[in-house]
Amino acid sequence: MGFIENFFFSIAGLSYIFLWIVVSLATIEKKPILNYLAEFLVYLFSFLFLGLRDSNSGTDTAAYISFFEKIQYSQNFEFTWEYIYNVFAYLIGLIFDSTGFIIANVVIQLLLISFISRKLKIKEISLILLAYISFLPGFDMLTNGMRQGLSIPLAMIIYFIWQYKKSINKLSVFILFILHKSILIYIPFLIVSSFTKTNHKLKLINLFLSLFVIFILLWHLMDLRDVLSPVMNSITFQLSESNLTLGEKFNVYLTNDSDMLSGIYKYYFLMISIFFLFFVFKSRKEISEHTNNVVLRDYAFFVSFLALPYAIIWISPFSYRFMYIFYLPGLIFSVYFLNIQNQIKSYYFYLLVVLVAGLFTYGSNTFSNFNY
Predict the structure, then answer these.
(1) Mean pLDDT along residues 339-347
(2) Angle, helices 136-143/344-362, rounded to nearest 10 degrees
(3) Which tens digit of pLDDT belongs to each residue from 208-258?
(4) pLDDT of residue 33
(5) Please, are residues 106 and 129 in contact by the beta-carbon 8 Å criterion?
(6) What is the pLDDT of the chain when averaged over all its residues?
(7) Which one of 79, 110, 175, 235 is least enclosed by Cβ atoms within 10 Å?
(8) pLDDT band at 38, cuts 50/70/90?
(9) What's the pLDDT at 283?
(10) pTM, entire model
């Protein structure tokens, strides 16, 4: 139980407890001034304990700083899936040093999440931000997977533009190709969504949720890799920065036998996934009874689709990377649905889950080894 000692005997752990209390009060009391204060405190906590870490805080942080120091002196960007991130790093380098670069990655990521939440008219933005930094996927995308962490909220903004701003939706889709490889899953979704009639979306939500459960159960009963691998090889979309096709890249993850993610960690990500999909499952009744709630229906359709790649590749030690694809959409959806339900018991339960997640994250050796 070293994580308990790490958490309760650290400034970060005690600060997190205080932050959780303020966010809880803001969520339950629903007073605007409390919500603004709680939101500011989440930013402050993230700035101090995630943004100010130095290059000795892990190999990924060191790699990002090394990348930044090289790119800030060059305007020659290789045209890859991360082209926008390369431009972002270069522009940050015109103003800030490597510390400013790390801070910018953290703060801008949270600002994008706040922007999406406000556009959805969610009142409990501080709860979304706290949940994001509390669960390991959000923490990881703020510290180790910062390219994906910035790309996913940008892709979500593009999704909402495509869905509701018909005059510019076709142009917005092209940005997906220069964000991050993981965002490519949005392309088949947009295609499927374009040909799906409104009255069929609830049926497809049920289908996607059922397929998620079926794949997870099947992985516990048999090894599906021999069946799935040939299917994936048929996807011949060429990746720009390698000699592999998209299907071959998927198979690299699918057939990997390393023990990088096993046991309790694999089920940790699965439990988070089930937690968020539970809210999608519950939303079906609301969607069925209130057909005029177009955003809820479309959003549930979106999240349930994005969860499928994770279920398909669940056995892989790299499956968590696919879980990250729908982590933020699922998290925001869960609070969006809580907002619609407005049941105090549901908020208490959600806050308790977030607290437990924060205990594990900020009591972990990964966080304890951060240097400032």
Answers:
(1) 93
(2) 50
(3) 999 999 999 999 998 888 788 777 777 766 665 566 676 777 777 777 776
(4) 92
(5) no
(6) 86
(7) 79
(8) very high
(9) 94
(10) 0.91
SS3 assignment for 275-337: HHHHHHHHHHHHHHHCCCCHHHHHHHHHHHHHCHHHHHCCCCCCHHHHHHHHHHHHHHHHHHH
Predicted pLDDT of residue 46? 97
Q: Which residues of 271-299 are buried (b: 16+ CB within 10 A; e: fewer)?
A: ebbebbbebbbebbeebeeeeeeeebbbb
Report the alpha-carbon distance of residue 74 to residue 187 in Å, rounded: 31
Whose CA is closest to 180, among 76, 83, 67, 63?
83
One-letter amino acid for residue 123 of the chain:
K
CB 19 within 8 A of CB 42: yes
Q: How far out from the chain centre does Cα 60 lie?
A: 18
The two three-digit tokens of residue 269, written as one number: 């990500």
pLDDT in tens, 169-194: 566 666 766 777 777 788 888 888 87
At 131, the pLDDT band (50, 70, 90 cuts) reads very high
CA angle at 318 for the pair 313 and 320, rounded to the nearest 5°:
80
pLDDT for the residue numbered 61: 85
C-alpha span between 87 and 65 (Å, rounded): 15
245 phi and psi angles, rounded to 5 deg = -85, 170
Q: Tokens 């969520």 appear where?
A: 27
Give pLDDT, residue 72: 66
Q: In whole angstroms, what is the distance from residue 151 CA to residue 230 CA?
A: 29
3-state class (DSSP) for residue 245: strand
DSSP string computed for 231-244: HHHT--PBPTTSS-
Burial of residue 73, with CB atoms counted within 10 A of its CB: 0-12 exposed, 13-18 middle, 19 or more buried: exposed
The C-alpha atoms of residue 203 and residue 60 are separated, in whole angstroms, by: 42
